[in-house]
Amino acid sequence: MIKKVDQSSINSLADLALKLWPDHEREAFIEEISNAIDASENESYLYYNDSFEAIGFIQLSVRHDYVEGCDSSPVGYIEGIYVEADYRRRGIAQELVLFAEEWSRKHDCLEIASDCELENQLSIDFHLGAGFIEANRIVCFTKKL
What we know:
This protein is an alpha+beta fold and about 140 residues long. The chain has 4 helices and 5 strands, in the order E-H-H-E-E-E-H-E-H.
């Protein structure tokens, strides 16, 4: 079952998000999620198993700026997707992607996009298996001033 995150489920999302992004702080996730709960173009959803335990999530947004490899605007964007290791390879992530596609259509998007780190081969394989095509590879640089 896929359910939109609300105030009562913020902690569940934060717990799962820290597994995907372990370098972040829990309090920062909770604040970010709380601020976005009422934003219609930035939503998070939890995936629950038959025991009503949150075992996965997807964070979605509508991007109006340029999205690498896309020809249209706005673009639905998967900001994050995660399924607990014990529940992988059961079609849950694919179900979340199909949900994201429908969500994007409802937001007048003709395309959906996502990204991952260059070294995250598991995520690359997942995206390719879910029907995405690789648009580009980049290396980002910063310089302290």
